[in-house]
Amino acid sequence: MDSCLFIHGFTGGEYEISPLSAFMEQNDYRSRTFTLQGHGGSKRDLQQSDRFGWQKSAEDELAGLLETEERVHLIGFSTGALIASELSVRYQSRIKSLTLLSAPVFPINPVELLKTFVNPQMLRNYLSKFGSTPAKATREFQRLVRESFAVYPQIQTPTLIVQGSRDHLVKTKSAYYLQQTIPTSHKQVLLVDQSGHMVCHCADKERILNQVLQFIRNTDE
To answer: Which residues act catalytically here (predicted)?
Structure first.
């Protein structure tokens, strides 16, 4: 039984990818989820963390899996997709596949973002989250986004790119950029019309879950 390591997003948690991790378990894959350093606690915890700590916590989880597994499937959501990309390069021979969900190659800036909200509740939710995120943590996220541009041209692992066309946090052109930049010959793009940023929780999630499963199964053959 192969294992999948799931990496959640910036200021998020395991809930972001829980439908997919549970689905993979139901289809005979081991799912490993965890919480990135500085996440899941207080604002102070996030303030005291940085991108290197986020990356190290993911690498520690991967190293633990590789103690008993020959190769592992990496699945990253949002910022987790950036971290997964970097790990796929450094552990290339040990990574069977790479799935990038809502990868923030080109994040929408706050001014652009405010224009995308269609109702007051969405605006309130965003302002609440934005106000509780330390400025230092946001800068660390932005640095990770910039540094990842050097990573994408090095990815040789079979890669699935999933992007919602209604994503209010990431520009759709992110998926096309990854498709053009990642050099592996085994890559696939799934654009989901009925999805925003949270692709694992959207109305079309069943199709996404099955597409991810099929892609991973194909790399196992």
So the answer is: 78, 167, 197
